[in-house]
Amino acid sequence: MPNGAIFHPDFKPEPFWWEAYRPSADDLVDVPKTARVAIVGAGYGGLATALELHRHGVECVVLEARELGHGASTRSGGAVSGGVNIGKSFTGKSLDPASDRARGLLTDAADAFSTIERLVAEENIDCSWQKTGRFVGAWTRKHYASQAGRVAMLNDAAQSECYMVPRERQREEMASDYYYGGMVVERAACLHPALYYKGLLDAVRRRGIAVCAMAPVGRIVRHNDGWKVGTGRGDIEVDEVVIATNGYTGDLTPNLKRRVIPVASHIIATEELPEGLAASLIPKKRTLSDTRRVLTYYRLSPDHKRVIFGGRARFTAASPEVTAPVLQAMMAARFPQLKGTRVTHCWTGNVAFTLDAVPHMGQDDGMHYLLGCNGSGVAMMTYLGTQTARKIARVANHSNHFDAEDFPDHPLYGGNPWFLPAIGSWYRLRDTIDRMQADWTS
User: Fold this and answer.
1) Superfamily of structural domain 7-392
2) Helix H or strand E encompassing 134
3) Domain ranges for the chain
4) Burial of 133 from C-beta contacts in 10 A (0-12 / 13-18 / 19+)
5) Interatomic CA distance for residues 157 and 104, integer angstroms
6) Coil, strand or helix: which one is 86?
7) pLDDT tens sequence across 283-328
8) 278, 305 in Cβ contact below 8 A?
9) What is the pLDDT of residues 83-101, one digit of tens each?
C-alpha cells in the first residue's frame, strides 16, 4: 500500500467500481469448435455485438484474453455523451463543424445515446443510470466563445439540448469559480460502468451465447471460405471475425494497431465526504469536464457520497504513487473544499484515440472492426457493436457515418505511442500559457 497523507488506510490500487462487480474468470466456458462469428474482445463493444447478432439469429462466440471485464469497460469514469466530444485530433486538425460529414457523425452519435438508453431499459440493467447532463467548463474566454459557436449545430444535429452558462452563473453548476463559464449538455448521462458491464454480460448469458474468458487469440488465418481463430484454449472455425479490442489492440491485428493510440486515463475515488459536502460541490449531479488539452473529467459516485476524478495525470501507465497526488491536486484546484481529502481507490485504463478523433467501424482484410472512441467509449462502443452486428446480419437500414473506408494512419507510427510523454508535456505547457494569458486580461 502506498504511504502518504492523501491515501486512506483502506486504499486499493484498483477501480472503485470493482466493489460492485469484480472481473471474473469463474466457470470457464469452453471455446466451441465452430460458430458463425467470432468476436475478439469482451468489452462493451464485443458484448453489444453479440447481443445484436443473437437478435437476428446469427450464432456467435465472444473471446476474451483476461477475466471478463478486466479492460476499459469497468475502468472508465462512467460518463455517457451523445457525441459532443467528436472534434480535435492529435495532429491538431479538426473536422469542419459545418461540413455534411460532421453533421452526419453528430446525428449518429445522438443515435448512440439513444441506443444505450434503450438497451439499459430493455434489459433492465441496474447500473445507476442518471440522465443528469454534463457541464463542460471553459478553460479560457476564447474556449467559451468557441463553445458558444457550436451550440446551434449540436442542438440541431445531435439534439444535445445545449446552452451556455456565463462565469457569473457558474456556481449554479459547480461550487467553484475555476472556469470562465461553460456549456451545459442536458442530453448526457452517467452510470456505474462495472454494473453496466455486468448487465450486458448477464443479457448475453441469458441468451446462451458463449463468452470465453482466459482465451487470448494468438492468430487469425484464412481457412476455406472463412477463418480459423487460434486461442489459448483451442481453435475455432468461423465465417466472420469482429475485432473489438479498442484501447488494447495489439500485434494480432497490426494494421489496426497502428491506427489507434492507447492513452492511459487515470482516475481516483475519494473517501466518503461529510454529509452535504458532495451535494454542494455539484448541485445538479452532472458530469463535469473541461476544454483543456490535458482533459479532466469528474462526477459524484452513484450514491453521491464521493467524488470520482479522472484525467491525464500521465499519458502513459504509472503507479498510484505518481498519479494519485497529481489528480488529487487537480481536484483541489477546482474544489478547494477537497484539499486534504484522502483517496480510497486509484486506477488506470486505456482510452483509444484515432488520428482524426473520430470513432471507426468497418472492415480490414476481410475482418470487421470497431475501434477508437476517443474517450466516449461507454455509448460509442455499445453503438458501434450494435451497428456492426446489424451490418453482418444484413439488416442495417441506413449508412452509418462511422463506417468509412478512410481510417488514417501515420508513417511514423507503428502502434508504439513513443511520442505521448512529449505530447503530454507540450499540451500542459500550452494549457498553462493559455490560462496565464486569460488571467492577465481579466
Assistant:
1) FAD/NAD(P)-binding domain (3.50.50.60)
2) strand 134-137
3) 7-392
4) buried
5) 8
6) coil
7) 999 999 999 999 999 999 999 999 999 998 888 888 999 999 999 9
8) yes
9) 666 654 444 455 666 678 8
